[in-house]
Amino acid sequence: MRVLAPAKLNLCLYLGGRREDGLHELCSLFEPLALADRLVVTEAERDEVVCPGVEGENLAARALAALRERGWSRSPLRIEIEKRTPVAAGLGGGSADAAAVLRLAAGEVADLKQIAAGLGADVPSQLTPALALVRGAGEGVELLPEPAEHAVVLLPDGGGLSTAAVFAEADRLGLGRPATELEELAGRLREAAGAGSSPLAYAALLINDLEPAARSLRPGIGDALDALRDAGAPLALLTGSGPTAFGLFESLAAAREAAAGLDRDAIVCAAGSIGDANLGPRS
Prior knowledge:
The protein is of the alpha+beta class. It has a single domain, classed as 2-Layer Sandwich (Ribosomal Protein S5, domain 2), CATH 3.30.230.10. The protein is 30% helix and 26% strand. The chain contains nine helices and ten strands. The strands form two sheets. Strands 1, 2, 3, 4, 5 and 6 form a six-stranded mixed beta sheet that branches. Strands 8-9-7-10 form a four-stranded antiparallel beta sheet, with helices on one face. A hairpin with a 6-residue loop joins strand 8 (235-238) and strand 9 (245-249). Helix 1 (59-69) packs parallel to helix 2 (93-103), helix 2 runs antiparallel to helix 3 and helix 5 (163-172) crosses helix 7. It is globular. The model has no long low-confidence stretch (mean pLDDT 94).
């Protein structure tokens, strides 16, 4: 079986206060990208998750282990991940891989959403890749209608930027909004995105509160955002905690034309719709 694990884009990210569990309240719009890792799943003598070229702990392996702990009895599997989503780029690649593994047990293991939440804040939203309003620390996921055509140009900027470090810097800078404001913003996003419009139709709502903190730690992010604006992006933002900057465009053709004029390594892809992509079993 071959399944896809689409990268996700934070169209916006509003930051709230720190919770007792140490995580922050958030309000965000997530959407899937055509950019996706590919997972090849075959039967094997023992469970094994392989991701060539990526070292360290593999969230997909943790997902498979969590399924076994819940009693999933399918034959041992070998899962090989072909990475296409840049690593540690704020695009949720590892979370998408983990969610793709959990989808293999859809209908066979209960409480996949609970398992996903235990793996990481971005995993629950990736169980069903679609435009979604995301609340809490990532566990609250409200699916929204498929948006109108648009595309993105991604500038990954290379190297990781610690999510924990960015949130700590945000706290140091005194960033964050009160709960009442997050609730009001959630309603406005739900109304705007619920109409099925392109995100460019409600661009004024698309803000990333973590951008000042990320730019404080990685000043080069500002150069990437400026480059996207100079290339004609109607809107340029940071995704998640960075370091990837992205520009929104009305069409794939416009995105490709802009990327051709950039003196940087750029990734161009459709956004918001994954069509009939092979996602494997759904949760």
